[in-house]
Amino acid sequence: MYLSILIFPLLASFVSGFLGRKIGITGSHILTCTCLTISSILATIAFYEVGICGSPVSIYLFSWIDSELMSISWEFLFDQLTVSMFIPVLYISTLIHIYTTSYLSEDPHNQRFFSYLSLFTFFMLLLVSGANYFVMFIGWEGIGVVSYLLINFYYTRIQANKAAILALTMNRVGDMGLSIGFFALFAFFGSLDYSTIFSLASYMNETALTIISLLLLMGAMAKSAQIPLHSWLPGSMEAPTPVSALLHAATLVTAGLYLLVRSSPILEYSPTALLIITLIGSTTAFFAATCGLVQNDLKRIIAFSTISQLGYMVMAVGLSQYNVALMHVVNHAFFKALLFLGAGAVIHSFADEQDIRKMGGLIKFLPFTYTTMLIGSLSLLATPWLTGFYSKDLIIELAFGQYAFSGIYAYILGSLTAGLTAFYSFRLISLVFLTVPNGIKKVYLNSHESNMAVVIPLAILALFSIFF
Amino acid sequence: MATTPFSSAHRLYVKSLYRRMLKNELDWVVRRDIWRGRALMIRAEFERNRDVQDPRALAQIFEKAEVELAAKQHPDPYIPPAMPGGTKW
């Protein structure tokens, strides 16, 4: 059952990609949505068995590389961290597949898009379920390549080409550091298996662990858009909105966080690395929030908001609060995907206009979309009793509770960032929905709520943003 | 239609300058109701120089206007989605 969680998205991707002309657009929709739904149900069962009942699963398939000291096998580990990542990845991927059936209904390349989305989901699941750094790296590279394919979906647009290449090359910079980190891990530990490395970490030299941690951090910085490797994320808004919601809010950007949380046994023995992680995370959170204040593109505001929240998560890792960081990863995935999907609904209803200076007054035309985006924004702002509150507020409190320079630095920047987040979030809500209409009259006359395939994912994500 | 002493190229340039100033103002102000007042002020400045016919004086006015416009240019001007540089281009 556990491996079939990974196999179903891969199957959907292959059939939709290679047999797309045979099965047609509707066949592609039905196949991918069904496979993802089955995977989500199986992942929920896995979460109950592993996460709640506490019985992790390890599956050894076969040996892959067996060369002198190096022994790498196709092995999968389903522990609490893995199944905790399964839930947001699969739930959001399923909802986005359903959303996309309506959003891209007029696009002639539906089969290719659904194939890429399912392939991305497979690689992300592979990343989080590997039992060694090598299998994780297969998934890591896979999501980078599929991210390129998805950002470049409209491959006739030069801006999409540039954005996709920027994303790929910036991620490769991080991958270089990550690869050297793997070399260092193998040199010191003689293995890339999690079990071997984490059980030996406490006996290793602190300097060696610091160097390894910083190299792993380099990979995480590129994937999770930390300063200075953050600029690919706003550019990747060239992709269709479902891609932004899945990759650049909920899944791909959390791969770096997953790497850091998974490597926590190494990080914990390197105070220097934790200090640097805290400083980078806090600075990223603040810097990205200031950038988001002055953006006029609807998706770019949300993109910078994502970078800022990723900074909070990295900050939590630096404060050694891995559980809180993971909680914020999951909470953020839901409300940020909600914001992106809501933005997509607004854009589609407004003749593909993305500039918020040409919107306004949409609360009367899109009341449901407004409601869901307001819920997403309130959760982002850590409004008490919504999901964002329990994780984001806790990160700031934990920063305050750490009586060291890094804690004070993180607390001050985290608090300022929270204020800036409130400002740009309500700037977005105000300019899009509440203020006087600033757009073209003809566009308003044709503006209407989307159909059920869009409404249902928005409603489910809104519920998850309140109650998860 | 009454003839004017200005060539069609001159009229096109003045209209272009006027439109660019109005668009730049809207990029900054965003709200059309507030922009309307600023648009009237821009129109008043153009009207003030309506009867200037000396080419040298006109060249100086245009140069000053272009310099002012360049100084106030919005860093992220609005581009319609289907136009070059737009999100659907």
TrEMBL record, chain A:
<dbReference type="InterPro" id="IPR018393">
    <property type="entry name" value="NADHpl_OxRdtase_5_subgr"/>
</dbReference>
<feature type="transmembrane region" description="Helical">
    <location>
        <begin position="6"/>
        <end position="24"/>
    </location>
</feature>
<feature type="domain" description="NADH:quinone oxidoreductase/Mrp antiporter transmembrane">
    <location>
        <begin position="132"/>
        <end position="412"/>
    </location>
</feature>
<feature type="transmembrane region" description="Helical">
    <location>
        <begin position="363"/>
        <end position="388"/>
    </location>
</feature>
<dbReference type="GO" id="GO:0015990">
    <property type="term" value="P:electron transport coupled proton transport"/>
</dbReference>
<feature type="transmembrane region" description="Helical">
    <location>
        <begin position="243"/>
        <end position="261"/>
    </location>
</feature>
<dbReference type="InterPro" id="IPR001750">
    <property type="entry name" value="ND/Mrp_TM"/>
</dbReference>
<dbReference type="Pfam" id="PF00361">
    <property type="entry name" value="Proton_antipo_M"/>
</dbReference>
<dbReference type="GO" id="GO:0016020">
    <property type="term" value="C:membrane"/>
</dbReference>
<dbReference type="GO" id="GO:0008137">
    <property type="term" value="F:NADH dehydrogenase (ubiquinone) activity"/>
</dbReference>
<dbReference type="GO" id="GO:0042773">
    <property type="term" value="P:ATP synthesis coupled electron transport"/>
</dbReference>
<protein>
    <recommendedName>
        <fullName>NADH:ubiquinone reductase (H(+)-translocating)</fullName>
        <ecNumber>7.1.1.2</ecNumber>
    </recommendedName>
</protein>
<keyword id="KW-1133">Transmembrane helix</keyword>
<feature type="transmembrane region" description="Helical">
    <location>
        <begin position="36"/>
        <end position="61"/>
    </location>
</feature>
<dbReference type="InterPro" id="IPR001516">
    <property type="entry name" value="Proton_antipo_N"/>
</dbReference>
<feature type="domain" description="NADH-Ubiquinone oxidoreductase (complex I) chain 5 N-terminal">
    <location>
        <begin position="64"/>
        <end position="114"/>
    </location>
</feature>
<keyword id="KW-0472">Membrane</keyword>
<feature type="transmembrane region" description="Helical">
    <location>
        <begin position="408"/>
        <end position="429"/>
    </location>
</feature>
<dbReference type="Pfam" id="PF00662">
    <property type="entry name" value="Proton_antipo_N"/>
</dbReference>
<dbReference type="InterPro" id="IPR003945">
    <property type="entry name" value="NU5C-like"/>
</dbReference>
<comment type="function">
    <text>Core subunit of the mitochondrial membrane respiratory chain NADH dehydrogenase (Complex I) that is believed to belong to the minimal assembly required for catalysis. Complex I functions in the transfer of electrons from NADH to the respiratory chain. The immediate electron acceptor for the enzyme is believed to be ubiquinone.</text>
</comment>
<feature type="transmembrane region" description="Helical">
    <location>
        <begin position="137"/>
        <end position="155"/>
    </location>
</feature>
UniProtKB/TrEMBL annotation, chain B:
<keyword id="KW-0813">Transport</keyword>
<keyword id="KW-0496">Mitochondrion</keyword>
<dbReference type="Pfam" id="PF05347">
    <property type="entry name" value="Complex1_LYR"/>
</dbReference>
<keyword id="KW-0999">Mitochondrion inner membrane</keyword>
<feature type="domain" description="Complex 1 LYR protein">
    <location>
        <begin position="14"/>
        <end position="69"/>
    </location>
</feature>
<dbReference type="InterPro" id="IPR045292">
    <property type="entry name" value="Complex1_LYR_NDUFB9_LYRM3"/>
</dbReference>
<keyword id="KW-0472">Membrane</keyword>
<dbReference type="InterPro" id="IPR008011">
    <property type="entry name" value="Complex1_LYR_dom"/>
</dbReference>
<protein>
    <recommendedName>
        <fullName>NADH dehydrogenase [ubiquinone] 1 beta subcomplex subunit 9</fullName>
    </recommendedName>
</protein>
<comment type="function">
    <text>Accessory subunit of the mitochondrial membrane respiratory chain NADH dehydrogenase (Complex I), that is believed to be not involved in catalysis. Complex I functions in the transfer of electrons from NADH to the respiratory chain. The immediate electron acceptor for the enzyme is believed to be ubiquinone.</text>
</comment>
<keyword id="KW-0249">Electron transport</keyword>
<dbReference type="GO" id="GO:0006120">
    <property type="term" value="P:mitochondrial electron transport, NADH to ubiquinone"/>
</dbReference>
<comment type="subunit">
    <text>Mammalian complex I is composed of 45 different subunits.</text>
</comment>
<keyword id="KW-0597">Phosphoprotein</keyword>
<keyword id="KW-0679">Respiratory chain</keyword>
<keyword id="KW-0007">Acetylation</keyword>
<comment type="similarity">
    <text>Belongs to the complex I LYR family.</text>
</comment>
<dbReference type="GO" id="GO:0005743">
    <property type="term" value="C:mitochondrial inner membrane"/>
</dbReference>
<dbReference type="InterPro" id="IPR033034">
    <property type="entry name" value="NDUFB9"/>
</dbReference>
